[in-house]
Amino acid sequence: MKDPRNKELFLDQLKKTPIIQVCCEKTGISRATLYRWKAKDKGFAEKLNKALGEGTELVNDCAESMLISAIKDKNIGAIKYWLNNKCPGYMPKLELSGKVKVENEALSEEQKSLIKKALELSGLNINDPKYDKYK
Fold it and tell me: Superkingdom of the source (predicted)?
């Protein structure tokens, strides 16, 4: 088969099964060939990413549907999973506590000089009393 047909077959398979290795095996295309196509053909690379996204969305939809079915069947694990991941009131919380100590050190003469120079370059009035600590 020619490359364009193989590329389309691969993209169609990827939309159904968003796993590169599985799609390579099902279509008879090596990973090396796939990555060569991706590197040489930007249009194909974009289609590949789009197909992978569509396939992932399909699997996510299927998984969510199965999860909802399990919840309807009163599966406690599924119920806990849903609550922990979808309901803020049930989500696990992490609490951090501690103290932060801020120590203000006196500026060195070099630091004062740099600040004074920066103020002069900025056009600010360095004679303003609020800048006295940098003199």
Answer: Bacteria
Q: Supply the range of the domain harboring residue 44.
A: 3-66
Task: Say which amino acid occupies 82.
Answer: W
- How many Å apart are CA 8 and CA 37, to the nearest integer? 12
The pTM of this model reads 0.59
Written as six digits, the tokens of 135 are: 């003199």
Residue 1 has a pLDDT of 46
Among residues 11, 40, 66, the one where a domain terminates is 66
Taking 3-state DSSP, the helix, strand and coil percentages for the chain, each rounded to the nearest 5, stand at 70, 0, 30
Radius of gyration, alpha carbons of the chain:
30
State which H helix or E strand residue 47 sits in.
helix 42-72
What letter would DSSP give residue 17? S
Q: State residue 31 phi and psi, 5-degree precision.
A: -60, -35
Look up tokens 């060195």; give the residue: 108
The answer to whether residue 98 is domain-embedded is no
Q: What is the pLDDT of residue 81?
A: 94
Domain for residue 97, yes or no?
no
